[in-house]
């Protein structure tokens, strides 16, 4: 075996990078099959009502059209909500495509055209004529807010608002400084590069192999099996072109493609168009109200946070929005509430740091407002209120290096150059503004399994149903296995992204590296233990040595202190006539530890904006994001994750907004020309810092996950910088030029 | 997208004849706009006439110093052409403020000035739009109209023309050369695009069967006193909320000639030659330019979400002209904390605003 190599903590290139840039990595809509059929979806053009008639005659007569499915000819599928509820579903009645004539939201799929080519299907879809009976709808949360309600059933995995503590009203009354403000966030729409797509390969006896764009192959596999009552289904998601939470739940193209394949007994591909992405799951429209009271030194006395979020008519989607306010800072008097309002849209869904991106925006803007009210530097204000303990759960943190984030971030940014008064910093015709915010996200471990196989030639295979949604899962799993066996990274073969591999959770919540990474680590350790036992029991020289004194190092079994006998792993396996040594590692939350401890990732974000005084044009000049996330497995892929999160935060702050025509209930900017995300020109300098954070409690490998934390706090820091530059406080996202000049 | 037939004529006369003969025919050049519109089912040409075989790619300056831009010359080739860069830099900068590098490589000059509006309703066949389907109504009037017109609009249409290049061409008094079954003619740029009136389906004054062959621009006399300024929702690849092509010639401290065209505010590049004439001979001061901006924007009307354009437009209309003069604060500081009663505010229904 190769000499000792260190992999963990090294900036490794993606092991799948070459496959991706050469086009060899295949995505869901790129798989071929014999006589593959193609689908195109017809969606509703009203937001509420009923289909009176669908005239498909003209479409059926078009060349190449095979079949058109509507609610009138859908086939027998499960009646039970529980079969439709995937692992990540909120409470309620999951949407069932083509289930009835009822229209619940604009853009709802109402027909599926199947044809011999994509073009023929799209062509025919244009001439499916629908007669509607229109009913009143509501898409304006300002109007729907009057009917807000507390969700009676809580969403699994989402903590309800924290219990109230102390005496809020009295504390607010005694406060020397107070902030009472409202914050508003529009809908943000998922637009990963890869569109939702399913290619269903049909074989005899309803055997299905499905290439699906999903963040969880097993979640999708269980959904299809339950809904269609099938027992020979495999789902593959070897490569996923971005998802950000949109692919947690099975999307309707999966159901429709499977339905068509089963009915026609042929392979079917259905890929959604960019427009349809806007009618799917989105980050919910949210209104928030915060009251903060502080004493004359800026110490928080009271905090009240209420949020109302949009949900659909059929499910109670929920996020932890207000909870962050209860754990971010030490505050003994606090109350939290969280409600929903129904609007005629698809059910909102998880989008990068769901709840935190939203809630922390409001909290960290309010904290900034407090800092100016109290005349305290915004960073100093946060240090004065630093939470040493999670007051929501009354637990200790497994680790919290947020102070180090503040210190290192401020140092790199040059925060000390900030002039405290708004509008006091200039550069030519531009006003200069500095702003900062903190960020928080859960560091969770989910149940995960991984199989590791050590082959006789010293190479290693890793197998688990984990997904890589572009984050670098392939790479970090290879690093962990390579580190364990001290072999070059190219001697590790990682097989992920298929439902018949060992159990993995969906890729979400920033738990993949911690969960599956731990499972790989544990499996590798189990293999080493097996090798030690083998040497210990079957090789004479090792018989007198206690197994606890033995280790596997650089391909050799030997004593930990370096003395005594050694045997190579290859020799050992040959003697045992083993072709391979295989173990399965199982990771999961440590329930005992969780009674006392809780884990979060933290960040400090520093932003400089420039605002053209004459024209009102604001640009984000530079951002420093300092992150505490435990051990960093791969600084290169880790940095990319944070960069992506920060850029998405710039989009949230400056650009992204679904523009609803409330008169028709339709989103009007349903394309990437008019729904703006940052272009290259909008992104200037971004610096990412990972601060040292040792955590021996969070999980066996000490990592906390990085998928979400990069976006949290960015919008607040930008808004705070705009205030510092201009003296104008913006509380409604995004901060477009109309709001800046108003 | 519907099935269509395709033809590729080799001469302008053939192309014009084919276009005149078939009311459902449409011309394709760079394809950066038409293909999108066909995919979105906004337009359904029965025949697509591909004019890329025509010899209209030239860019040349004639003996009198007039620039002739072939209709099929790419936007990028035009913007980076040495003669254009040196003689008509305002045009270069306007072209480069538009779209993306990829689009500018494919898009042609003729196509640029013929591109359709980016009104959300025009692009969505499930909504009413008088421009797309005459008589169906205007969805934008009481709908999502953040990017819409504040000048020259009609009750039937509040769409804007999306081109940046056209705004510069308007300021430069370009001439559009067209050729059709009735022969050649030249259309002054100001007469090329039209206001919507009760025929918003007509973007311009070309006759059926006519094809743009070239755009001609006389030599300009503004030296370096010109600018193209574009305010938009992101720093690249977004259509203008308000843009301005401005050029000025001074005689000492006095305005000799002033030309300003606005984009993003009307159904065509917005220019008021009468107002420009009134300001000739006045002192080149900030006050003059602000008065000019006010006169240029006279009659501007908001429709709700685009009310902010009334406040946004004056600065770019005057600032480029008065870069050397100080401009007062525009962004008014606000108190840090709202003192209104708690409870989410309901936005009042948008009322048309008139300045």
Report on this structure:
The complex is a heterodimer of chains A (742) and B (355). Chain A has 20 helices and 32 strands. Chain A has 742 residues and is of the alpha+beta class. In chain A, strand 20 and strand 21 (460-463) form a beta hairpin. In chain A, helix 11 packs parallel to helix 19 (714-726) and helix 18 packs across helix 19 (714-726). Chain A starts with 16 loop residues before the first helix and ends with a helix. Chain B folds into two domains: 55-217, Uridine Diphospho-n-acetylenolpyruvylglucosamine Reductase, domain 3 (2-Layer Sandwich); 226-322, 2-Layer Sandwich (Enolase-like, domain 1), CATH 3.30.390.50. Chain B has 13 helices and 14 strands. In chain B, strand 6 and strand 7 form a beta hairpin. In chain B, helix 5 runs antiparallel to helix 8. At the A-B interface, helix 4, strand 7, strand 14, helix 11 and strand 30 of A face helix 12 of B.
Short description:
Chain A: Residues 22-136 form the Aldehyde oxidase/xanthine dehydrogenase a/b hammerhead domain. The complex is a heterodimer of chains A (742) and B (355). Chain A is an alpha+beta fold.
List the helices and strands and how they pair.
The complex is a heterodimer of chains A (742) and B (355).
Chain A lengths: L16 H6 L14 E7 L5 E7 L1 H4 L4 E6 L10 H4 L17 E2 L5 E7 L2 H8 L3 E6 L6 H4 L23 H7 L2 E9 L2 E2 L7 E7 L3 E6 L4 H12 L4 E4 L15 H13 L3 E4 L2 H4 L4 E2 L2 E9 L5 E12 L11 H6 L4 E10 L13 H19 L3 H7 L11 E2 L4 H12 L12 E2 L2 E13 L5 E8 L4 E4 L9 H13 L6 E4 L16 H27 L11 E4 L2 E4 L6 E3 H8 L3 E8 L3 H4 L2 E2 L1 E13 L5 E11 L6 H20 L5 E2 L4 E2 L17 E6 L23 H13 L10 H5 L1
Helix pairs in contact in A: 11-19, 14-15, 18-19
Chain B lengths: L4 E3 L4 H10 L3 E4 L5 H6 L7 E4 L8 E3 L5 E4 L4 H5 L2 H6 L1 H8 L4 H6 L2 H6 L50 H7 L3 E6 L2 E6 H4 L18 E7 L8 E7 L7 E12 L2 E10 L6 E2 L1 H7 L6 H11 L4 E2 L5 H5 L1 H5 L34 E2 L1
Parallel strand pairs in B: 1-3, 2-3
Antiparallel strand pairs in B: 4-5, 5-8, 6-7, 6-8, 9-10, 10-11, 11-12, 13-14
Helix pairs in contact in B: 5-8
